Amino acid sequence: MWVFIVALFFFGVLCCGSGPPAAATSSEAYAQLRLLVEALYEIDQKYVTEKQDRDLIYGAIRGMVSSLDANSSFLSPSEYQEIQAGVKQPEASAGMELSIKDNILTVVSPIEGGPAWRTGIKAGDHILKINNQTTRNLTPLEAVKKLQGPPGTKVKLQLIRNGFVKPLDFELTLEKLAVPWVAHYQLEEGYHYLRLRSPQEGAAAELQQILRSIQANASPKKGLILDLRNTAGGRLDDARRIASSFLGDDVIYIVKGRHSEQKQIVKGLKECLVLKNKLPLVILVDHGTAQAAEVVTGALQAQWGALLLGYKTFGECGVVQTFPLKDGSALVINVAFCYTPKDLLIQGRGLEPDLPGPKKDPEEQPVREDSKDQEKPRNLPDVHEIMQDPLVHQALFQLKNWGSGRAIQSPGERSLKKNQAACSHSEEQEITKISILGDQEHSLFQA
After folding, report:
1. Nearest Cα to 73, choosing from 110, 96, 36, 103?
2. pTM above 0.70, yes or no
3. Of 227, 211, 336, 236, whose CA–CA distance to 295 is shortest?
4. pLDDT digits (tens, 9 = 90+) for 91-102
5. What pLDDT, in 10s, does the model give residues 361-377?
6. Read out DSSP for 206-270?
7. Which helix (H) or strand (E) element contains residue 388?
8. Which of 51, 90, 175, 289 is the most exposed place for a label (fewest CB within 10 A)?
9. In 3-state terms, what secondary structure has residue 192?
10. Rounded to an integer, what distance in angstroms lies between the CA atom of residue 315 and that of residue 232?
């Protein structure tokens, strides 16, 4: 009877789904369905301890969804209800963007100035334990909850890092992030360095204010460096507003789904435009450049003529949609991918730099036996430290030799609306039921 009920359940999925009619379902699909039912029966009847039927079904669905990609996930009824109720801003957090990579909870990027960054946690670190509890089989939502809480809460992490034989142990203190999203320094006369720490809500407004101050300054303006290294998270609308500060209503990104009618060309917001002239622009990128930052990078490379310097970006910009199920649970699956205006796919590939940074040879990296050689707690870099950065130094060289190397389109003046404040209240271009990774219901989370 149990097998019969499960078979009916999956048969109903095949018949009532949004796909082709059941008559079009191949015999191979039925054979695989029979295999799944057989496996469920054997586990239910013969596993050493009794398991709830719903747990087995949920486990089967989670496995099926996880086989799609890192962006897709399954939400239990309680998790989905929490999402529907609205995700409250945490009192304090660890300050890092997380994803599931190779089935392991992974740090995409620690937010510069946040607790994780100051403690020495790096992009690419794999989190094995949180407070001595394994992260294996944890959903992203469950992992994030363990890294949020009241200010002052101590959290212990065990990480595995490339170049170390043994896991590393860290302890950090949860804090409410208070660092500015954007930092600005004038490196030399006419050459400005902009550091976007995180493309969160409010980052575009900070960036626009800085760009206006640069533009209003009477001193010559010779070039810009936009540092997007270890910049992850954010939503598509955040990326759109940031890129619009440079591009106005030019094309920012393209969304392509499985079917041709799902293609959407998304333009910027003209009222967000700040810069009147195109200046030579170098963007610093690395493997911690992800999501919204990748959208901004692709748009500025294609439309502004920006030069990408550094390393290949993370490659995560899937567009997901939530599908509620009858028992209150939900599927969150990729329905489209983001492309740059040059029609370059971001998801799973990342963006290649025009000029690579210094080669990092894994064989030259020292293999360490333990965590005694961990980095000391870090402070935000000042202009002198930034000038010592090899990539910044290389970017400055490129700007100074712009005319003799990489050509740039004729600048030309661009019209501006007087009321720049309208940018922060502009109506977001409608993309029905679609949002970018980094929202709290997806496989990438800010902890």
Report:
1. 103
2. yes
3. 236
4. 899 999 988 887
5. 544 455 555 554 455 66
6. HHHHHHHHHHH-SS---EEEEE-TT-----HHHHHHHHHHHHTTSEEEEEEESSGGG-EEEE--G
7. helix 383-388
8. 51
9. strand
10. 11
